[in-house]
């Protein structure tokens, strides 16, 4: 598996994967898989799906993936990015309980080292208090996490109310959002030539093993194999 394209600002990563299969896992990112050659299979708790040409996997949906004797393009989208929110709205992914398979008209979002994204100007808004919290988190991705008490005080909400509102607006907890953004920053720094261990420490992971576990939860593969190219 190799990382072809990574854009932290627009919230997406593109991998190419051949003759590979994963264990059952779930990740925060929306995943869109296309078969470049051959076909692939995927299983969830709802069933097994074979002879697939494409699939959309909603955020946090446990699944197992196999592309043996095939080459697939895997696009991971941050659900809070413009692209992610577009797909959530278009395919109602926030209420979907299983994968969408062989979706008609689903074109690759990445071709010949170029991003191919649809018009995403009409994405829904978000509560301004949650946006402010996200801005605070994004500005302090290195070191320790911002305490929930500090975030709640900044937007004049109780910690319980903020936690409920944040998950309602984003689909994940405040802590999960912090881990996601830290992991994305670490990946970007790794792509710039820094060691994974240095990147993990820089963004506040306790050690490289902690970073490895978070990365695996996000992408279903260990970072060494994904980022070695």
Task: Based on the model shown, name its key terms.
8 helices, 229 residues, alpha+beta, 6-stranded antiparallel β-sheet, 3-stranded antiparallel β-sheet
Describe the model.
The chain has 229 residues and is an alpha+beta fold. 36% of the residues lie in helices and 23% in strands. The chain has helices at 82-91, 128-138, 148-154, 159-170, 174-191, 196-202, 208-219, 223-227, and strands spanning 2-7, 12-18, 30-37, 40-44, 47-52, 54-57, 64-66, 71-77, 100-101, 110-111, 114-115. The strands form 3 sheets. The protein has a 6-stranded antiparallel beta sheet with strand order 1-2-8-3-6-9. Strand 1 and strand 2 form a beta hairpin.
Summarize the structure.
The protein has 229 residues and is α+β, with helices and mostly antiparallel strands.
């Amino acid at each position: 598996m190799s990382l072809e394209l990574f854009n932290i600002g627009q919230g997406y990563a593109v991998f190419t994967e051949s003759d590979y299969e994963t264990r059952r896992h779930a990740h925060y990112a929306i995943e869109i898989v296309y078969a470049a050659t051959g076909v692939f299979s995927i299983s969830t708790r709802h069933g097994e799906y074979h002879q697939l040409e494409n699939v959309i996997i909603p955020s946090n949906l446990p699944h197992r993936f196999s592309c043996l004797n095939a080459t697939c393009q895997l696009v991971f989208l941050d659900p809070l990015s413009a692209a992610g929110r577009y797909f959530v709205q278009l395919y109602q992914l926030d209420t979907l309980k299983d994968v969408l398979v062989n979706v008609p008209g689903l074109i690759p979002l990445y071709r010949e080292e170029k991003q191919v994204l649809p018009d995403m100007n009409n994405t829904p808004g978000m509560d301004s208090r949650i946006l402010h919290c996200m801005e605070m988190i994004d500005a302090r991705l290195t070191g320790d996490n911002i305490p929930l008490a500090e975030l709640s005080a900044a937007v004049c909400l109780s910690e319980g109310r903020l936690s409920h509102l944040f998950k309602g607006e984003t689909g994940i907890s405040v802590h999960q959002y912090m881990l996601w953004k830290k992991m994305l920053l670490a990946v970007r720094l790794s792509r710039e030539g820094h060691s994974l261990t240095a990147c993990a420490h820089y963004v506040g992971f306790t050690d490289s093993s902690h970073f490895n576990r978070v990365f695996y939860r996000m992408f279903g593969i260990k970072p060494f194999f994904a980022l070695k190219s």
